[in-house]
Amino acid sequence: MPRPSVETERRAQILHAACAVIAGRGFRALRVADVAKEAGLSSGIVHYYFANKRELVRAAFEQNFTHSLERRTAILESDEDPVSKLRRLVDAYLPQDDETVEAWHVWAELWAEAIHDEDLQELNDRAYGEWRRLVAGIVRDGQAAGQVGDTDAVEIANLLVAVLDGLALQVLAGSRNMTLSRMRATCQSFIDKVVLPA
């Protein structure tokens, strides 16, 4: 396999740093100088790859989405039955380690900014459209395998994604009433009580 180009590696390094800064300080507090420092580069190098903060942030959100898909790939390509796949996918989505917590913080910042930014609205719509299609596809596979009842797969996907997002925000906010373990149990219970009934 050929080695990635220096440009590709440098761009990824900058975007990784941008996601870390967004997750740690928020979108509004992000400065190109902070991203450069996090990446161990000069601001000039960051500006060489990204003309301005807006371009950098959009690319960082895009990378967060791409990494989200990459984290799910092994689960989606497994030979597991659809319901087991859905359970693992849901569990992998939880804000449970440094990587997923950072990704969740970036998503939360994207949502807040997308309210006022049409470009980010489009990115959010594309990312969430893909996520809901993926979940709906697994639900349909479960229906074909006789594991999931004859319900509207898109509606189930919308409900499950909404449950995950809402509970994850509570976990990130440090709610004593919604811990990570309670979120995990609630999501699995949702699958048992809403997705599975035939």
From TrEMBL:
Keywords: DNA-binding, Repressor, Transcription, Transcription regulation. It holds the Pfam family TetR_N. Residues 8-68 form the HTH tetR-type domain. This is Transcriptional regulator, TetR family. InterPro entries: BetI_C (IPR039538), Homeodomain-like_sf (IPR009057), HTH-type_TetR-like_transc_reg (IPR050109), HTH_TetR (IPR001647), Tet_transcr_reg_TetR-rel_C_sf (IPR036271). It comes from the Bacteria. One of its GO terms (molecular function) is transcription cis-regulatory region binding.
